[in-house]
Write a structure and sequence with these properties.
Layout lengths: L6 E9 L8 H23 L4 H13 L20 E7 L5 E7 L5 H11 L4 E3 H11 L12 H8 L16 H6 L2 E2 L1 E7 L5 E7 L20 E3 L4 E7 L1 H6 L2 H12 L3 H15 L4 E7 L4 E5 L3 E8 L4 E6 L2
Parallel strand pairs: 3-4
Antiparallel strand pairs: 1-5, 1-6, 1-12, 2-3, 2-7, 6-7, 8-9, 9-10, 10-11, 12-13
Helix pairs in contact: 1-2, 2-3, 8-9
């Protein structure tokens, strides 16, 4: 079987990401972090690895980087702890694994993959998910591992209010309320065999209450992959992405209406989501290895790399 074009696409969150708010040092740090994640995923694909392992590798790099609201860099909840969500889906088998309300697991995407492969379930949450992580030997970390001063300051500014924030933002409360940054990481891939996979991981909202869960771990909403159409990972106002069943809708538009991945993502991001007040973005790849990145917000940390030599890293809505 002839080798197909292979591609990895990643995102590190979307929202009000403006050049005037970014220092040159921070911009370089984000670009380097995105490049590291791209190279991790692309390395798997170029060695003949499958799409599932490629997206997992890219996500692990971002979960380990404190710049992103996932894994180590996860934001604080109302109770001053981290609750992490993640999902992964194999476009070949349509098998999926997801986890929500997770604490102390270093790489939630590793646990989502174990759930997909070894649990006979799709979605685990809370203590049960942690128990399964221990059984499978997934690495745990103490609370201190997930502490970062700027996330703590961010939370401290709003913890005594009923406000929550979807962000990677500055610490002043006026700026916190002005800046909306949806901190999620995601990856999608097409391997050289034409198989697709998608994965998403997040720390959710700063100051979130009631065990809130967004779109990231919900299959079909924030994460979806199907070899017949596309692989999608979303980032944005999670409630709206759930209501729009955003990731699966892209696949449906391709399957039933014959749209290209660019056309389908444009309809969902710039028409359907905008129509219900949903802000954010998504990344996608089709079974030909065609990458696409779409956003209706001011910016999205994003990038792709493909075996045809094309690659791009971007931050702003250009």
């Amino acid at each position: 079987m002839a080798e197909k074009r292979f591609t990895i696409v990643i995102h590190g969150g979307a929202g009000t990401i403006l050049k005037e708010d970014m220092t040159p040092e921070l911009e370089k740090a984000y670009e380097a972090a995105l490049r590291d994640a791209l190279e991790a995923g692309y390395g798997v694909l170029s060695a003949g690895g499958n799409a599932v392992n490629a997206v997992k590798a890219a996500i692990v790099v971002m979960e380990d980087n404190i710049l992103f609201n996932a894994g180590r860099g996860s934001v604080f909840t109302k109770r001053g702890t981290q609750e992490m969500d993640a999902a992964i889906m194999d476009g070949d088998s349509l098998n999926a694994g997801a986890v929500a309300g997770l604490r102390n697991v270093r790489n939630p995407i590793e646990l989502a993959t174990e759930i997909m492969r070894n649990s006979n379930h799709v979605f685990l949450s809370g203590k049960g998910a942690t128990d399964f992580a221990i059984k499978q030997g997934v690495k745990l970390e103490p609370d201190e591992y997930f502490f970062s001063q700027f996330r703590y300051d961010q939370w401290k500014a709003i913890r005594d209010s009923d406000t929550y924030s979807l962000d990677h933002t500055n610490t002043h409360i006026e700026e916190l309320m002005r800046d909306k940054k949806f901190g999620t990481v995601g990856a999608v891939a097409c391997d050289q065999y034409g198989n697709l996979a998608a994965a998403t991981s997040t720390g959710g909202m700063t100051n979130k209450k009631y065990g809130r869960i967004g779109d990231s771990p919900v299959i079909g909403c924030g994460t979806y992959a199907n070899n017949n159409t596309c692989a999608i990972s979303c980032t944005g106002h999670g409630e709206k992405f759930i209501e729009a069943v955003a990731a699966h809708d892209v696949s449906c538009l391709m399957e039933y209406k014959g749209l290209t991945i660019q056309e389908a993502m444009n309809v969902v991001i710039n028409e359907k989501l905008v129509g219900i007040g949903g802000e954010g973005g998504m990344i996608g790849v089709d079974h030909e290895g065609t990458p696409n990145m779409a956003l209706n917000s001011a910016g999205m940390y994003r990038g792709f790399k493909s075996s045809d030599g094309s690659e791009r890293i971007a931050i702003y809505g250009d």
